[in-house]
Amino acid sequence: MKTIGDLDSGQQLLVRIDINAPVENGRVKDHSRFERHAETISELLAEDHAVALIAHQGRPGRDTYVSLEQHAEILAGHLETSVEFVPGLADDQAITAIENLDKGEVLLLENVRFDEEELADRTPEEHAEAKFVQTLSGHFDAYVNDGYSVAHRAHASIVGFPEIMDAYAGTVMEEEYRYNTSLQTRDFDGQVVMVLGGKKASDVIDAMEHLEDRVDRFLLGGVVGELFLRASGHPVGYDIETDIYDQYYEDCQEKINQALDKYGDRIELPVDLAYRAGNSRAEHRINELDEKTVDYLDIGQITISHYVDIIEESDAVLVKGALGVFEDELFNSGTVELLEAIGATDCFSVIGGGDTSRAVRMYALDPKAFDHLSIAGGAYIRALTGEPLPGIEALQKN
Question: CATH fold of 181-365, please?
């Protein structure tokens, strides 16, 4: 891929970023993506480029499907410079603002998903024919994609522009791709470990299959950990007050059993789980359970200690997904203590998945303690499982 280091200075650039963020009561919340993309934008401004940004927020029909006006304010705070918001994408108002954009200035166009052509099911060549792609492409010297976290989407703003414009990878795109594919490109002298949590067993199994020749041990937790325990014959991984375990298990039971048969000696499962007892945390030993009577919200302390011991002996550790409901301080131990152990160990580390990265920020862990802290969710999983990323392919083809 060409990168922004290959650009001549002083150009008019159309830059795709991903600042999709949580929305609560109509207010857009700050997110680590703002900070990361602000670093790329600052690099571009330092080279005297004029920068017009495009991005999305939410999906049609959801509460998070809102304008990007608040995003411009948040981004300006990270850049410490003004970001003009334009309530249009490729209409006359937007084109006028683009034509008046001077070097060293930034503007943000309206939510690209407000245009129905963005999400259309089309090939990259067909996306290049979208009206907004054709209109905007004629007003810029080059296109930059910095949105690695949307690189797994074959949407018009991601794959359409590289068909008809010079296209470059931004710093976030370049770094995320390099680190998230690191297990396939690096050699390690010692043990390589993956910490796998979250809800989606299918993602975990796909990662195991793709990286079976590179990873020595898989440490499981979260919903996934319970589902694997259920498949191993333990009375957990069932719904009590939730409605996720039984459906996930029904969907993935065969694949989970196959994974246990194939990788069982490399899979570490929780030996204890934590639950809420009044206002306190309590824990059950798995081998002492006859049935599941409570919802489990974290791995237990014995499991945590065991996993930490494994991490401290490792040469490389990758993380995908949280090991418990870390938003509740009673049940953050599994996720936070393992992250702390990874940060304190002299190992190569990549922390990925949206929730896990959020935990680093929520509990003020030092991002510099890890080799890479990914802001991607779906694209991170696609990279781990060897699936193609349309956004990357578009840049490479260009």
Answer: Rossmann fold (3.40.50)
